[in-house]
Specification:
Structural class: mainly beta
Largest sheet: 8 strands, mixed
CATH topology: 2,3-Dihydroxybiphenyl 1,2-Dioxygenase, domain 1
Number of helices: 4
Strand content: 35-45%
Length: about 210
């Protein structure tokens, strides 16, 4: 039987976890839980934002510049209610100066490319890491030096209008998302002390029932 592909189990970010509560998140002990993924903080001199990810079935190491940690043993728990109605991480965004190089590094650890989208001056490559989509972005055909870097998060919320009402001017305007039937709004993350760019997405529309 083929091994299970890697799944995202945790993210390590810089800064103070308490800042996330200002954006409507519930802190659970020493972490913040979004679906099956934990967000925890660490002292990271000289580094800001997402500094590491934890993947199941992968040893500690560096994947094209992305600090990678093995998944911690963490028993399943009941879902957490967040005042901002966030339910899960929809996708994690990684930027790369060399899309082919980063894609090869991800494939080497068992994270396979699923889809490519041409967005003009930018190319998006999509992978699946458990329940979360990994979106790799960069310039088409570029082969520049430097590592891949974690960029930001898009989170699914149960009620984006409730999210907007709660956060007020801490949130940008709610607009139509690229994904059909969904709406999106961007957290003014620097204003609330969250070190990671965060967007909130309404849930995917229900799939039509088969005839």
């Amino acid at each position: 039987m083929a091994p299970e592909p890697p799944a995202l189990s945790a993210l390590t970010v810089s800064g103070a976890l308490q800042a996330w509560s200002t954006a409507g998140f519930t802190i659970d002990g020493d972490a913040l839980r979004l679906g099956s993924v934990r967000i925890r903080t660490a002292v990271t001199p000289g580094a800001t934002g997402i500094v590491a990810w934890s993947l199941t079935g992968v040893d500690d190491g560096v994947v094209d510049g992305l600090l990678t940690l093995g998944a911690d043993a963490d028993p399943a728990r009941d879902p957490i209610d967040h005042p901002n109605t966030a339910t899960a991480i929809d996708h994690l965004v990684v930027a790369s100066p060399d899309l082919d190089r980063t894609t090869e590094a991800l494939t080497t650890i068992g994270v396979d490319l699923r889809r490519v989208r041409d967005a003009g001056r930018m190319e998006q490559r999509f992978f699946r890491i458990g329940a979360v989509v990994l979106e790799l972005i960069g310039r088409p055909g570029a082969a520049g030096p430097g590592p891949a870097t974690f960029w930001g998060l898009a989170l699914t919320v149960a009620d984006i209008d409730a999210t907007a009402a709660l956060l007020g001017d801490r949130l940008g305007p709610v607009t139509d998302a690229v994904q059909p039937g969904r709406r999106i709004a961007t957290l003014r993350h620097e204003a609330v002390g969250v070190p990671v760019p965060v967007a909130f997405l309404s849930p995917p529309p229900p799939r039509p029932s088969p005839p």
